[in-house]
Amino acid sequence: MRGLLVDFGGVLTTNVFDSFRAFCTDEGLDRDAIKRLFKDEPEALRLVRALETGSMSEDEFGERFGKLLGVERHAGLVGRMFARVRPDETMLDAVRRARAQGVSTGLVSNSMGEGRYERATFAELFDGVVISGEEGVHKPQPEIFLLGAERVGLPPEDCVFVDDLRENCAGAEAVGMTAVLHRGADSTLPRLEELFGVALR
């Protein structure tokens, strides 16, 4: 394998759903209210996809998603949902180490509006960047994975994709990539070291 493509939220950061649970607790909701809404309410997923592809603003998403969720204050909803997300320095360092050892590295991320990324670090981390809101496609659509491979200059078959959602891993595998379902650095990094033959810790 020659290319490492990674998700952002939940792979290069702490668990996104932990932040969602904390937000729900702050708002006086059941801690899994957001997760349940994604699972049970098709309109919630439709709103997320619209935000991810840049066809809906954060403000409009906040108003419409907030109503579904039963939250009274809609202003700044996305920022509040993600407020507890922090960088995962172990995973970030692993990407740096991979790149320093000749692995082509790329970001393939479904965006949740502006301000979620530390773009100042992109130049040192990635050879290519694909963010759904800037491209108009989202994971697990095949086009976004193919674009990710193109941005790092490799065929999909030479790329490993890391994501914390099974459906996105399945989407990457559908275009010929090898996928790693991320459940923490302790399990992901040994698998990547095996696939690339380089030390990442």
Structural features, described:
The chain has helices spanning 16-26, 33-40, 42-52, 58-69, 77-81, 89-100, 122-125, 132-135, 142-151, 166-174, 185-196, and strands spanning 3-6, 104-109, 128-131, 159-163, 178-181. The chain has 201 residues and is of the alpha/beta class. The protein folds into two domains: 3-14 and 85-196, 3-Layer(aba) Sandwich (Rossmann fold); 16-81. Strands 3-2-1-4-5 form a five-stranded parallel beta sheet, sandwiched between helices. Helix 3 runs antiparallel to helix 4. The longest helix has 12 residues, at 58-69. The protein is globular. The two termini are 18 Å apart.
Enumerate the strands of the largest sheet in spatial order, edge to edge or round the barrel. 3-2-1-4-5
- By DSSP (H or I, 4+ residues per run), the number of helices equals 11
Radius of gyration: 17 Å
Q: Mean of residue pLDDT?
A: 96
CATH architecture of the largest domain: 3-Layer(aba) Sandwich
CATH fold category name of the largest domain: Rossmann fold
CATH homolog superfamily of the largest domain: HAD superfamily/HAD-like
What's the count of strands? 5
- Indicate the proportion of strand residues: 5-15%
Distance separating the two termini = 18 Å
Helical content (DSSP H or I, runs of 4+) = 40-55%
Q: Characterize the largest beta sheet: strand count, sense, and whether it forms a barrel.
A: 5 strands, parallel
Features:
11% strand, Rossmann fold, 5 strands, 201 residues, alpha/beta, single chain, 11 helices, five-stranded parallel sheet
